[in-house]
Design goal:
By secondary structure, this protein is α/β, with parallel strands linked by helices. The chain folds into two domains: 148 residues, Conserved hypothetical protein from pyrococcus furiosus pfu- 392566-001, ParB domain (Alpha-Beta Complex), CATH 3.90.1530; 100 residues, Beta Polymerase, domain 2 (2-Layer Sandwich), CATH 3.30.460. It is built from 13 helices and ten strands. Strand 3 and strand 4 form a beta hairpin. Helix 5 crosses helix 6. The N and C termini lie far apart (66 Å).
Length: 258
């Protein structure tokens, strides 16, 4: 009986579990937990109370060699149900991490070519969350083209937004831009053909920049020789640039474009 207990796997012919799927190295920052463990588990709640230095020292001790099992959902998000320590450590270290896609709903349930094009976009340095901020299910190439079309338009305006914003910052002697977000109806998917393009420009001390911008607008003085409400192409479409020290709120719809 003792021998049977010690060798039960051999008697039952049980094989060691080996996950099957598509292997690749993947940016840890693009992964999300689909079980919410980082928000619910006491271990992680205590971990996030540590200083950044303490978190980084912990991350250096974690072995990142074992692949994390990933599910790709129809919205294109790459999610993990385990491997939370490895993913968090890699995120803190800014590293790629080996993954294996064991379930791929996009590949299995979407039109031919959707998954391949999506993977190419992600591997080119695009965060899935930025590509599809509304997390629409992508079953057809038409849906994917529509999502990417909105993103392309937002990025096409970016050069002009940066030019205008930097000119104003130089005039005021203020700091550098940390990030730019498309917000409003263009980001939420509620826009029509006549909707404006609203951009949130984020940086240190930018609340004061916004106050100066508003003051000049009220006095009828455009900044840097340009009105803050700048025509894009058609008469009804404009860029509205808003300066802020803070990124969009968690419940606000946005697309990060810079």
């Amino acid at each position: 009986m003792k021998l049977l207990f010690e060798n039960w796997r051999e008697y039952l012919k049980e094989e060691k579990y080996t996950p099957k799927g598509q292997y690749m190295d993947f940016p840890a920052e693009y992964l999300k937990s689909h079980k919410g463990e980082y928000n619910t588990e006491p271990h992680w709640k205590n971990f996030f109370k540590k200083t950044p230095e303490e978190q980084l020292e912990w991350a250096k001790t974690v072995n990142l060699s074992e692949p994390v099992e990933i599910t790709v959902f129809l919205d294109g998000m790459f999610a993990h149900g385990d491997g939370h320590h490895r993913v968090m450590a890699a995120k803190l270290l800014g590293k790629d991490i080996p993954i294996i896609i064991t379930y791929n709903h996009m590949k299995n349930k979407s039109e031919e070519g959707v998954w391949e094009r999506w993977l190419e976009l992600v591997q080119s340095g695009n965060n899935p969350k930025d590509l599809n901020p509304e997390q629409y299910n992508i079953k057809t190439m038409d849906t994917l083209d529509e999502i990417l079309g909105s993103l392309d338009s937002a990025k096409n305006n970016l050069r002009r937004v940066l030019s205008i914003a930097n000119a104003f910052l130089d005039e005021l002697g203020e700091g550098e831009i940390d990030a730019v977000y498309l917000i409003g109806s263009r980001a939420s998917g509620a826009a029509d053909e006549e909707s404006d393009w609203d951009y949130l420009v984020v940086g240190d001390g930018f609340d004061a920049v916004e106050e100066e911008k508003i003051a000049r607008a009220e006095e009828g003085r455009p900044f840097s020789g340009l009105d803050i409400d700048v025509a894009v192409s058609e008469r009804s479409k404009h860029l509205d640039i808003i300066f802020s020290e803070n990124p969009p709120q968690a419940d606000q719809k946005y697309i990060k474009v810079y």
